[in-house]
Specification:
- This protein is an alpha+beta fold.
- It contains one helix and three strands, in the order βββα.
- Strands 1-2-3 form a three-stranded antiparallel β-sheet.
- β1 and β2 form a beta hairpin.
C-alpha cells in the first residue's frame, strides 16, 4: 500500500488514503499520533502543486 493523499472526515479527523501497488485497491486509515506531520502536510498539499490548469487563470 502506498499513501496517495489525505481525507478529512466530518468530525475533522484526518485519514490517509492508500492505494495497493499491486491491484490498485484504495482504502483509508486513520492517522496515528506518531505519523510524521510534515509527510501528512505534503500529502495534503500535493494536489495544489499539480494543478490541471495554469495558475494565472485563477482569479
Amino acid at each position: 500500500m502506498a499513501p496517495i493523499g489525505v481525507w478529512v472526515k466530518n468530525n475533522k479527523e484526518w485519514a490517509i488514503i492508500h492505494r495497493c501497488t499491486k491491484c490498485g485497491f484504495i482504502r483509508t486509515n486513520r492517522i496515528a499520533g506518531d505519523d510524521a506531520e510534515q509527510v501528512l502536510l505534503a500529502l495534503a498539499v500535493k494536489p495544489l502543486t499539480k494543478l490541471p490548469f495554469p495558475m494565472e487563470e485563477v482569479g
